[in-house]
Known about the structure:
Blueprint: H1 3-35, E1 40-46, E2 61-67, E3 119-125, H2 127-130, E4 140-147, E5 160-179, E6 185-195, H3 197-207, E7 213-219, E8 232-233, H4 234-239, E9 248-249, E10 255-256, E11 260-266, E12 271-277, H5 278-282
Antiparallel strand pairs: 1-2, 3-6, 4-5, 4-7, 5-6, 5-8, 9-10, 11-12
Amino acid sequence: MxxxxxxxxxxxxxxALIASxxxxxxxxxxxxxxxxxxxxxxxxxxxxxxxLGTILADSDxxxxxxxxxxxAGAILDKKNAIGRGVMTDIYKGEPIMDSxxxxxxxxxxxxxxxxPGMRACAVRVDDVASVSGFSAPGTRVDVLASAAPIGNHGxxxxxxxxxxxxxxxxxxxxxxxxKDEQGKAKQxxxxxxxxxxxxxxxxxxxxxxxxxxxxxVLRNPLDTQITKLDGNQMENIFYGDKPKVAPALxxxxxxxxxxxxxxxxxxxxxxxxxxxxxxxGKK
Length: 283
C-alpha cells in the first residue's frame, strides 16, 4: 500500500475516534441533566382572593412551589407579608409581590394608594355617572363645574359652566350615606379623585359656589393633552356671543324693535295708562 495513502487513512481514523468520543460525552451529559430534577423554590401566595386595602393575616397566605428561581420581589417568608396592606387586588394562587403591598405600618384602605404630595378628594356624582364607567379605578376624567355666580358689582352672571380640571385619575368610587333636608339617610354616589392640594381647593370651592354642581366626563387614558377652555354661558349657546333682543311683531308681519314709553293718566275717578313710542313722546 502506498505510504501516503496509509497516512491519510490513519489520520482520518484518529479524527473519527475523537469525534465519536466527544459526541458520546455530549449525549451522556444531556441525559444526566434531563434526569436530574430541576431546582424548585417556595414562595408565599394568596390563599384566596384578596381585595384592595386588606391587612394580610396568616389565613390569607399559603405556600406555592415553583420551578427555577423565584420572581424578582416575591415574598419568601410569611412574616414579611403579615400585617401589611394590599395596594391592588390579588387573586387566589397568585404569588405575593412586595411591590403590591404597602410599607410596614402604613395600614390599609384608600390612603395607601395616595402618592406623597397628592390628595384624595371626594366628589358627589349622580346615578348616571356612577354606572357609566367612573367606578373603575385608574380611569381619567375632566371635571366641569356649573353655577350661577354673582359678579363683582352684584349683577347676576347667569348659569355658567367651565372645565376646571383635566386629566384627573379616579382612585375609587362607591356609595355613602348622607342626610337629606328631612334628616333621613339617603345614598349618594361618591368618586374619589387623585389631585394636588391646589386642585383640592379648586374642587371644594367649585362644589360650594352658589348651588353649583360638579360633573365628570370620561377621557381616553392615552390622551394627556390639556385643552385651553374659557367656559360657556347659557346665553352664548342660544344667542351667540351677545344676547339678542326678541323683536316686536307688527300687523305688516315685519319684525321691528320698538321702544315703548308708558304714562299713567289720571282722569279723576278712573286712571288710565297710555303707551306710545319713544319717537312720538319726543314730539
